Amino acid sequence: MATSVATAQARSTPKHRFGADEVACGITLLFALAIFAITLLMAIQLWRNSAPTRAKFGFSFLTSSLWNPVTDQFGAAPYIYGTVLTSVLALLIAVPLGVGAAIYLSELAVPKISNALTFLVELLAAVPSVIYGLLAIFTLVPLMRDYLGPAIQKVLGATPLFSGHLYGVGYLTAGMILAIMTLPYIISVSREALMAVPREQREAALALGATKWESTKDAVLPFARLGIIGSIFLALARALGETMAVTMVIGNQPAIHASLFAPGYSIAAVIASEFAEADKLHRSALIELGLVLFVLTMVVNGSAQLMIKLTTKKGSAKA
Amino acid sequence: MKILVLTSLLALPALFAMPAMAADTINAAGATFPAPLYQLWFGEYKMAHSDVRINYQAVGSGAGVRQLIAGTVDFAASDIPLTDEQTKDLKGKTFHFPMTMGAVVLTYNIPQLTGNLKLTPGAIAGMYLGTIKNWDDPAIKTANPGMKLPSKAIEIVHRSDASGTSFVFTDYLAKVSLEWKSKVGAAAAVSWPTGLSGPQNAGVAGLVKQTPYSVGYVELTYAIQNKMAFADVQNAAGKFVTASFKGVSEAAANSKQMPDDFKVSITNAPGAASYPISTFTWILIPGEIKDAAKKKAITGFLEWALTTGQKDAEGLQYAQVPKAVVAKEQKQIALIK
Amino acid sequence: MSLRNARRNTINNVMLTLCGLCAFLTVSTLFLILGYLVYNGGKSVNWAFFTRLPLPPGQDGGGLANAIAGSAMIVGMAAAIGLPVGFLAGVYLAEFGGKTISFWIRYTADLLNGIPSIVIGILAWGLIVVSMHRFSAIAGSIALSLMLIPITARSTEHFLLEVPRAMREGALALGATRWRTLATVIVPAARKGIMTGMILGVARISGETAPLLFTALNNQFWSNGPMDQTASLPVMIYTLALSPYDDWHRQAWAAGLVLLGLVLLATITARMIVSRGASLPR
To answer: Is A301 helix (H, G, I), strand (E, B) or coil?
Structure first.
C-alpha cells in the first residue's frame, strides 16, 4: 500500500515543473547570450569590412596623415590625434571641476541639498548630444571667436599651443563642449566613491586636529582614488566616442595642427560626415577607423568598470 | 502583462505614422546644388499628380551616386557626370538628363564691406591654394580699387562631402590655374590645401554666414536666399560678370556642342557675358526600370520638368535648358526600358 | 592662534569654497543650457511646427510633423524590440545565471554600453541596410535597440537583485517553482525599478542621432512605414542647425526644445518613481 502510494506520488511528481524552470532558464539565457552575440558580431563585422585597407596599408594606416579619397590614400593620424586631443582637453577642464564639485556634494553639502544638486547634475547627462551641438554652434563658437579666444591669445598668444587664427570652431571649442558633457559622469561616480569611504576615516582625521579640507585630502581622497580615476576613465570613454556635438564644432579639417584654436577632425565626426557617400576602399578606411574607436573605447571602458567596481563595492580600496 | 500592454502601446505610433497612402514613393538622392529647384518641382508635381511622391534627399552628388549604385534609390541627381569607375559599377546603362543649369558663386562674409567684390581667377586659385592669405593682398586689391579691404586673414570654406559643386569649382580652377591642376586636380572630393569644411551646400553657406572674413563656394540660390554677398568673377574674356541665370545661359550657348550622352562641362566658357563657373546638373536614371508604375511616374516627371517645370527655374536664378537640348532629351526618355 | 594654524585655516576655507564654486558652476551650466534652449525654442514653437511638413529651402513656415511622428515610430519599434530582450537578459543575470557566464555577460553588457553609437550605426548598416538594399526606419530601430538591450538588462538585473531574499524564500517555501516565484512575486516587487530603468533607457535612445544617420536617413514627407526612410527629430536638428537659413535655425531650436522636454520629462519621472538611495546603475 505504502509503496504504491509512494510510486504513485513519484509518478505524479510534476516533472513538468522542473521542465518549466529549465525552459525559463533556457529562454532567458538565450536572450542574455544575445548581448554576447551582438558584441561579437560587431567585432567581426568591423574586422571583416576593414580588410581592404588593412591589407593595403597595414600599420601605416595609423601613422599616415594623408587622407585623399581621390587617390585612395588613407591615413588615420589626424583623426586619432583630434579624438585624443579633444578628449584630453575635455578631461583637463572637467576633472578639476568635477572632482571639486563631487567633494562639495559628498563632504560639505547637507544631504538634502546634496541629493537635489546631484539629481540636477545627473539630468545634464540625459541631454542628447545633438542638442549640445546645437547650443555649441550658436553660443560657444561665437563666444570662443569673439571673447574667449582673443582673451586667451592676449596672454598666451605667443606659444604654439595658442597661436594662429581664431575660427571659433576648433579643438578647444570641441574640448569645451565635451567637458560639459562628461562632467555629470565624473561628478556622479566620484561622489559615490567618496561617499563609500567609511565615516571613521574622516572622524579619525578630524579627531587628530585636521581641518575639514585636510581630512578630505589626506584621509578620504586616497581611499576614493580608484573610484575617482574610474570615473575619469568613464568620462574619457564617453568623450572618445562622442559624435554629434564634436562634428558640429570641430571645423572638420583632416590635418594635424599644433594650435588648440585650429580646426581638426575626430574619428566619429569623419565617419558621420563621409560614410553615406563612401565606397570600397574609402568605406573600408572609415570602418577601420570605427574598429580603432571600438578597441579604444573597449579598453578605456573596461578599465573604468574594473576600477569603479573595486572601489564602490569594497568601500575602502587600496590604490 | 503590463509589459505587453506597454510595448504594444509603444508600437502604436508605428501604425498612425503610416498614413493610408497608396502613394508610390519614389526614393531619390543626390546633389544639393539644384535642391531648391528640385524640391519645388517635386512638391508641385505631387500637387498635380497626388499619386506620385518623390522623396529627394539632398545628401550631395557623391552620396547620391553611391546610393544609385547600391540600389537604395530609384534615381540620383548629380552635378558631376558619372566617372568611368562609377559607370562600371552601375550594371547596365545609365542615362544622364540635364535638368537645369546653375552658377557656383564665391560667397563671402566681410563685415562692413559695401559693394561687390571682384575676383580674378588667379585670386580665387591663390586663396584656395593658401598662397594668398589676407584680404588686402595685392592680387585682390588690384581688381578692387577704391574698396577698403581689411588686413584680416581669409578663412577658406569648402565641402566636407563628395560634391558635384566641388567638382564644378575645382574643374574651373584646374582650367584657370596650372598650379591647381597639378597640385590638387578636379574631382568631387579633393585634398584641399586649406580651409574649414561643412556638409552640403547648406553647410558651407552656414559656415560662411557664421564666420567673419570667410569665403566659400555655393550655388547661387543659397547665397541669394540667405542675403549673402557674392563676388563678381572675371571670365575668360576678361570681363567681371555678376552671377545670374543670364550669365549661365550665355556660358552654355558659347560652349561646345552638347554631346549625345549630355556629359559636358561649361566652366570658363568664352564670351563676354558668360559667367565662368557655370554648370549643367543632371538626373541619373537607370537604363531599365523594372517597376512599370515607377517608370511611368519617373518618365512623367521628367517630361513635365523639362517642359512646364522649366519656368520655375529663373525665379530661383537657375537657367532654363536650351530647347534644342530638351528635344534631344525627350528622344532619350523614350529609350528608358 | 599660531601662524601655521591660521594658514591651515585659510587653505581650508579657500579649498572648500573652490569646491562649492565647482558645484555651483556645474549646476548653473545646466540652468543656462535649459534657459537658453527654452528661450529660443519657446520663441519658435508654434502650431505649424507640430502639424506641417518641411518646405523646400528658402521657403519659410514649414514644420517638423513628419520628424515627430518618425521619431515616435522609430523609438517605439526600438523599444518593442529592445525592452523585452533586455528584460529577459536581466532576468537571466539575476535569477538563473551561473557564475562565469553571468560575469562575462555582465562585462560584455557594460562594454556594449560604452561603445560609441556611431559604431553601432555601422553594425546596423552592414546587417540591415546592405542586405535590404534600402534605408529604412526598421534599420534605425534595430540600431537603437542594440543600445537599449544592455542598458535594460543591467538595470533589470539590478532591481531584481534588490528584492529581499525573504520574499524569494517565502515563495519557494510555499512550493512555488522558480519561474512562478519570478513571475508572481519577484518581478512585481521590483516592477517600479524595472520600469524606471526602461523609461530611462528609452529616453536615452530617443535622443541619439548618430545611429540614424545611415540607417533611417531622412524623409521630406510622411514615412510610409517601417520599411521606408524616415525623418527623425535628432537628425533634423543636426541638418537644420548646420544650414544657413534663419527659418531652419528657428525650427532647430523648436525641435531641440521638444526633444529635450520629452527626454527630461521621462528622466525626471523615472527618477522620482525610484526613491533616492537606490543608485541607478550606469
So the answer is: helix
As a whole-number percent, the residues of chain A with pLDDT over 70 amount to: 92
Q: Please indicate, yes or no, whether residues B83 and B212 belong to a single structural domain of this protein.
A: no
Q: Is A73 helix (H, G, I), strand (E, B) or coil?
A: strand
Biggest CA–CA distance in chain C, Å, is 80
Average per-residue pLDDT for chain A: 84
Residue B269 lies in a domain: no
* A302, amino acid identity: G
Contacts of B63 in chain A (CB under 8 A): 276-277
DSSP per position, B233-280: EE-TTS-EE---HHHHHHHHHHSPPPPTT-----TT--STT--SSEEE
Q: Minimal Cα–Cα distance from B168 to chain A, Å?
A: 15
pLDDT digits (tens, 9 = 90+) for A176-218: 999 999 998 899 889 988 888 888 888 888 898 888 888 888 8
- Cα gap A314→B332, rounded to integer Å: 77
CB contact under 8 A, A69 and B162: yes
pLDDT in tens, B23-67: 567 889 899 889 889 988 988 888 888 788 888 888 888 888 888
Closest by Cα among B86, B64, B84 to B75: B64
- pLDDT (tens digit per residue) in C26-63: 888 888 888 898 898 888 888 888 888 888 776 777 78
All residues of chain C having their beta carbon less than 8 Å from the beta carbon of residue B13 are 69, 72-73, 76
Classify strands B75-78 and B24-30 as parallel, antiparallel or unpaired.
Answer: parallel
CATH superfamily, region C47-275: MetI-like (1.10.3720.10)
For residue A147, give Cα distances in angstroms to A138, A169, B112, B134.
Answer: 14, 13, 20, 22
DSSP bridge pairs for B240: B234
Domain CATH code at residue B61: 3.40.190.10
The full set of domains in chain A, from first to last, is 52-318 (1.10.3720.10)
Is the C-alpha dihedral spanning B34, B36, B41, B43 positive or negative?
positive
**How many Cβ atoms from other residues are within 10 Å of residue A88's Cβ?**
15
Helices and strands: H and E segment counts in chain C: 13, 0
Q: Does C157 touch chain B (CB under 8 A)?
A: no
Helix (H, G, I), strand (E, B) or coil at B319: strand
All three cell numbers of C17, joined, read: 569654497
Same domain, B189 and B221: yes
Pairing of strands B232-234, B118-119: parallel
C-alpha–C-alpha distance, residues B61 and B65, integer Å: 6
**Chain C window 194-233: which residues touch B at a Cβ cutoff of 8 Å?**
198, 202, 217-226, 228-229
CA B281 vs CA A168, B210, C136, C161: distances in Å? 34, 28, 28, 63
What residues in C contact B8, CB-CB < 8 Å? 80
Number of Cβ within 10 Å of residue C117's Cβ equals: 24
How many Cβ atoms sit within 10 Å of the Cβ of residue C59? Answer: 15
Tell me what ipTM this predicted complex has. Answer: 0.86
